[in-house]
Amino acid sequence: MASSSINQFDDEFHPDPTLTNDDLKPTSIDQRNFSGWEMSSLWIGLVVGVPSYYLAGSLVDLGMSWWQGIAIVVLANLITLLPLVLIGQPGTKFGISFPVLARSSFGIRGAHIPTLLRALVGCGWYGIETWIGGEAIFLLLPKVVKDSHLSQSISWLGTSPVEFGCFVTFWIAQLAIVWKGIDGIRELEKYSAPILVSLTSCLLVWAYVKAGGFGHMLGLSSRITKSQFWSLFFPSVTANIGFWATLALNIPDFTRYAKTQNDQIIGQAGLPVFMGLFTFVGVAVTSSTKVIFGHVISNPITLLGEIGGSLTMVLAILGISLATITTNIAANVVAPANALVNLSPSRFSFRRGAILTALLGVVCQPWRLLKSSESFVYTWLVGYSALLGPIMGIILVDYYLIQKMNLSIKDLYTLSSKGAYYYSSGYNLSAILALVIGILPVIPGFLQNVGILDSIPKSFSIIYNNAWFFTLFLAGGLYWILSILKKNQKEIDPLLPNNTS
Fold this sequence. Notes:
By secondary structure, the chain is an all-alpha fold.
């Protein structure tokens, strides 16, 4: 099916030049060279990083036991695996990226709405990961620099000039890999995976030996009551789903390069496995620091500063830098860059889109997003899941229930009013309405979390704590109903124009 679609694209029609370039065309058979292992190694590179390490530790910081934190992470990633595989399927089948897939549900022009929302979140994450890489560079600086007045925080900047300089340095270093495009990313992930696994194993062994086993971790019990646990459970699951909801949405950007559907499915299955193992490492090492240093150190970069030893420090910093780059480029550059290419194929290439993504990552001021575990989990992760949940619900309903897994490749690249995805002047009003209605109920909870509203009804708090689930089913269900009503209307009046929504 994919092969015939691609040949049809090449031989039977000329796509509208405003809708395509080399980055947006369906992948050819020769370009489909991601094996199951390479898809899995992508997830190793994505998972092994400071935010993943920090995630379960954040839950422990909030009062959960070690096993409760790990269980929530694994459960959330098992749930995320389903939409990952479902949305990845059309990428492999038709060789199309996320922006092109979004045209079938939101319309040829309407697709800019979901892709730019996804791009905005990607820019925020790009900034966060780059800040983490900058922290690693900061650790390598001489003590005299770290103790100087330039290391003192400036209120209007929100950080110190030295830390900001380290952030900019790491920001520039990443662009060299981004410049090589998707092939450079694939090679980076494939060869980095075994290195990251080895370094992670060394850190775990070090903690085990220094702490005399993991007895202290196993002895960590919950510091909250049963009712408090359940009040944290649902927003924590939502936050952990939100952690990878970004990539789950634009996974066609990668699965379009998979050799077969089996390769993409086997590769995707690595997410809950690797995430569970790595969060265990994070919690185990974090708990061991209580025994080794006398106090808990949840930030791995701070921990490396305590370990000491020049060779150990350099290897560890290189490991963190590699882990950060592999996660950042794959998860947070590809989607925004492709969204910008889709916005204007004549003006943006993948490289130009990646550079603009990096610039917007600075504007997001990531050092403010990482102020505390609570702001990271409940404001950032839960907040943006409310944007991505309804988009995912609409695209899944459209592809599996409305389109029945059959897309017209030709119509995805035409502005003809007779095209299947032209709808009303290029916009599918049903999808846009469902998206807006899906997001609205979550806004009061978000405003309370950022401090704009003092109090809201309990029902809105419950909705916000389950934002991803609520918005996905609300928007997806509403879109399905509106699509059926529109279809019935056309059947009643067959003379109704095709571009009426």
